[in-house]
Amino acid sequence: MVVKWRYLVLLAVPLVLGMTEAPRLKKHTIRGVAQGTDYMVIYYATDSLVRRTEIDDILAAVDSSMSLYKPYSLINKINSGGRGVFFIDEHFERVVRRSLDIYRNSNGLFDVTVAPLVELWGFGVQQATHVPDSAAVELARDCVGMDDIRISDRSIEKKKDCTRLDFNGIAQGYTVDLLADMLEKSGVKSYVVELGGELRVQGPKPDGSAIRVGIERPIKEAGASLIMNAVIEVNHGAITTAGSYRRFATDGDRVITHHIDPRTGYPFQSGIVSATVYAADAMTADGYDNVVMAMPADAAIAFANNLDEIEVYLIYKDQNGTIRDTMSSGFGKLINNN
User: Fold this and answer.
1) Is residue 258 one of the residues assigned to a domain?
2) Could you tell me which residues come within 8 angstroms of residue 288 by beta carbon, excluding any fewer than 6 positions away?
3) Quick one: average pLDDT of 279-299?
4) Can you list the positions of beta strands (E) in 24-160?
């Protein structure tokens, strides 16, 4: 499961500077820091329609609901409680319901109850001091499984005392959607919302052209510099990227990625270096970029081609360790070849 609140610098970056402005439309930019990363909201309107305080209120509400790094958050209260029924807010409920959809569609590859395993391998709030043994992995794995939770109107039931939730693989995308929805409700028709590298856009730009997004490619798997690999053009939708080379641990010569298989309890070894996902909304793209990171490249492409919700671009290592790329059938239509 991908940890995105603080540590992972995602690969999709907006190429929005220097947009040509149509007459009477002004470019408004709001920047800040939230969820352990930077955010940027760019929109075009004749007047300033959105205040920073409105953005900060949304970010604070998400943190209060779902941040593992806020001791007072709802998710921490539920995680520290035993089995039983807990009242939840609308943000929490929406994310759990969407997570259940992705859990079922992915045959359990995406699972927000993976927190015990994420913590065990040292990718949670606290870092681990050693690699866990098989007995510890099995003990933690017994606490994982979305079949052990039940969601209903404004409540969630935990069937096991040890069940703990981790929304780091989907909540940032949900936050981007909240910000984008706020802009649209304010009457904004052209915008880019970016949080930690995850994007949702609405175009075209005032000059009539599509919004362009650059995808970077790592030269090495870990600690690498980046080079531009592709530019896509979109007028609507979301782009998120998950990567295995920004956050990892080592055990001697062994590299341990932060993508933990909730079904086995061990880190994935799929060979995927990064997965960029395009979808109609950022929560969907954010959740599924975890899923395709967990698959071999050919299986991930087949999965995406059979799912109407997403298009996928992958950078992976082949059997010889050579960096290659591949994409789903619809992703190529987004790429600007000029």
Assistant:
1) no
2) 102, 106, 110, 277, 279, 307, 309, 310, 312
3) 94
4) 26-34, 37-45, 84-87, 149-152, 155-158
- Per DSSP, the three-state class of 74 is helix
Are 110 and 99 a contacting pair, CB within 8 Å?
yes
The radius of gyration computed from the CA coordinates of the chain, to the nearest angstrom, equals 20
Average pLDDT, integer, range 275-297 = 94
Nearest to 88 by CA among 115, 64, 59, 113: 64
Segments forming the whole domain that contains residue 140: 60-158
pLDDT at position 5 is 32
* Cα dist from 118 to 92, 160, 313, whole Å: 20, 18, 26
Q: Is residue 170 part of a domain?
A: no
Q: Which residue has the tokens 């987004």?
A: 334
Q: And the tokens for 260? A: 């933990």
Query: pLDDT tens digits, residue range 214-248?
Result: 876 655 544 444 445 678 889 999 999 887 544 43
Whole-number Cα distances in Å, 19 to 109, 117, 122, 337: 39, 44, 42, 20
User: CATH number, domain at 109?
Assistant: 1.10.3980.10
